[in-house]
Amino acid sequence: MPKFKPGDIVRVREDLEENETYQMENDDGSFSSFCAVGDMLDHRGECMRVTFACDDYYTLADSMDEDTGYVWTDQMFDEYIIAPEDEPEQPEELSVLYDWVSQKAGEAV
Description:
Elements: E1 9-12, E2 21-25, E3 31-35, E4 47-53, E5 58-61, E6 77-82, H1 92-108
Antiparallel strand pairs: 1-4, 1-6, 2-3, 4-5
């Protein structure tokens, strides 16, 4: 079972490196591995929304709701989920992102 689920907000690691292999542990204890490539590096430090999650990888969308076109693994993210209920104060960009996520969630209902 993936660590994150669709709708969760994750932050891409600041130290993501091109051609570096990042893993994701599967339910059976095996690992899936993918390399960070190309435009993925442009998303370092960004908060993004999980759009798809399976045992092997995730797909992400940016704050403009555009899919990145890449697959991502747990090791490509900071070790925590950024959720609207998290405290303390959040930077303005996160507040805008939370508003965007709330709007999308409302449209899905």
